[in-house]
Specification:
Elements (H helix, E strand, L loop, with lengths): L4 H22 L3 H14 L1 H8 L6 H19 L2 H4 L3 H29 L5 H30 L7 H28 L2 H6 L6 E2 L5 E2 L1 H6 L1
Helix pairs in contact: 1-2, 1-4, 2-4, 4-6, 6-7, 6-8, 7-8
Amino acid sequence: MKRPAGLYLAYLFQFLIAVNVLIALSLGEYSQVFGGVIGLGLTMVPAVVTRRWSITLPWGVSLLVALSLYLHIAGEIWGFYVLYYPYYDKVAHLISGVTVSVLAFVIVLLLDRFSGLNLSRWMIVGFSIIAAMAMEGFWEIYEWLFDTFLGTNLQYGLDDTMLDMIAVLIGSIGVAFAGNHYLSRSSKEEITGRMVIPEEAGASGEPVDREERRAG
């Protein structure tokens, strides 16, 4: 099957993250190396999910995850957060808000399909906003803890924190509107049906589970 062109952009950002990790290693910035390796690992989660379970995540998910993590890692290693403050920081938070909201939207749709929750459209799009804001809240707590106890300089006052949260909120609301429009045109079953890989039929015509194919 031909891979979408957008997926190669995700690969590009993964490659750039790896390059930045090597640069940080050469500079002896070991904390940034650690963060970069963690970030690179997180960009591979969509591919792991696809291989482990019978689910094909939209290529946009892989691209957004890789892009948002690249922006954060490059911002730390090259000092973009300081050089281009506050614009780089707010754009990075905006994209992070979009990324988390899209992930939440996809995850809750799949949970609805496999657990029989039968969630309404408004519950699904509302969850995408709540998930993004919850993640942003944890992120700001993390920055405050590091600044308070480790002497870092991740936050620049109350205005900076509030603008970060507003940027994430704007991104998540945009995803919610797009998700609502998407759900108004296609049913939940149709959307998740594009993400669930159909089981292959065996010689008897019965579906063969992926784990059984591996064992065979």
